[in-house]
Amino acid sequence: MDIKAPDLGVDSAEVSEIMVEVGDVIAKDDNIILLESDKASVEVPSSAAGKVTKISVAVGDQVSEGMVLLELDSDADAKDDTQSADTENKTEPAADKQNEPQDNQQAEKQSDTNAAEENTSQPAKQASEQAGEQVGKATTHALPDLGVDEAQVSEIMVSVGDIVTADQSILLIESDKASVEVPAPEAGKVEKILVQAGDMVANGQDFIVIIGESSDSASNDASESKADTSESQASRPAESTNKTESDKQSDKSQTTDEPKQAAKSTTNTNATNAKLTEAQVNEKMVDIYAGPAVRKLARQLGVDISQVTGSALNERILKEDLFAHVKGKLNTQKAAPASGNGVSSSLPSLPDMSNTEIWGETEVQDLSRLQKVSIPQLNYNTLLPQVTQFDLSDITETEKLRGELKGAMKAEGIGFTILAFVVKATAYALTQHPRFNSHLSDDNTQVILRKSVNMGIAVATDDGLIVPVIKNVQDKGLKQIAIEIGELAVKARDKKLTTKDLQGASFTISSQGNLGGTAFTPLVNWPQVGILGVSEASMQPRWNASKQTFEPRLMLPLSLSYDHRVINGADAAVFTRYIASLLADPRRILL
Asked: What is the rounded distance in angstroms from the CA atom of residue 383 to the CA atom of residue 132?
């Protein structure tokens, strides 16, 4: 059976998209081809049900009314041929005997044909419904809230065709000093991956298509929607003539309905880095050659479609052209910052080291991404008038207390180190000296005091130093602090920290543990005004005035770096000594 182009309302139109393939089983009124003419797009439905045996047109062809679009193999054809042959066999003998009224014969033939069409449509519908039940629904999923405006795709952990489970890690995204693993939103088969390693992505951007596990409800919804489509298209022959003009109007009327569906922005792509409003996008679409789906995508992305170059015939814009335009904008915006984002270190260029007689052999090694993104933040420190105050804390008695509690903590799977005491003592000291838990205003005229203590804990990883944050430390006990230190350290080394785990610090502690050394100068992490460095504790002789003798005591070196614009030297000395006294006798915190 030939499926021909209906009355398009114009002399000819271009084949924009072919929606079926040879071998597909389709039902009556299923859309098979998308035709575009001027600024209108018309989806051509099939006039019959059956299996597609041949497609007679290709994308880019010009078609007109009555042209064969494709051929179907349906039971209706065979039945029609059989019925016509039977009719001829019956009518020829009847002509020898007596001519019967022609009206009765035509009526019988028409009724037989209608019955055959109804009977043949049922197997096709049943086949399509069974296929819907067996194959799950393909769903496009968007990225969750990353906590930042944009981030880079570092690693794609799955491939097309993989079977994934819900919450399985499928994407690794890195932003500033964070590495976030994005979990699978549902279980199913990966149909398509919409991003690549190295792409910059944003909240709400579509990143993967997953065919979910089949469900009865999905198939029921599909069959109901198909039934509604069949009913609504009963009057389609009358509508097809006016389709072109109505599509022109629909492009304008979509302004009212589609903002609700296109609420999420993928990225900022125009010259001013601000997303265009839907009204602005629609205004720029007047003279653009693009189909409805592409126009809708442009509205969702907030893209100025007049700046997009089409790659199809007659410069028609495809979805791929939009994606390429957005990616190009992102790469352009990130190119300059990548070479020296943020505050420059103001260092001169390296000398030419190509002369091996002077410089010897050299080797170039790439920095890790974590090290690269840390450089701009570290450069801020060159603008701070930083000073470091050193002190020692006698933690002999505190270490005895820790030893008594360590066994019970270990039985619960909790690592109970001296760092938990340092965090608790420092948090309490910050509540008593709030200026160290503050930020300097942009105009350098005010100090913004933080009401809660969010403690950043520096953790060394293979890729570099990362600083997760424990929130509201002032309200937590030693046990809870020890638990969160352990959890954050594991997540940092496994690259499973979320962006929220790394945000909001008001003060930082950098502990070198048992790495050695007697003191160091930690760098203040702007916009914070202070950071406490902790070195390895060691046994040292201390003078006991009451016994008039030296005694071995466990001494913990403390190094407090601070922003001298906010903190005076005397205040820093008092603050450091106060922390040392709290660590020497944690009972003071209870007073």
From this structure: 63
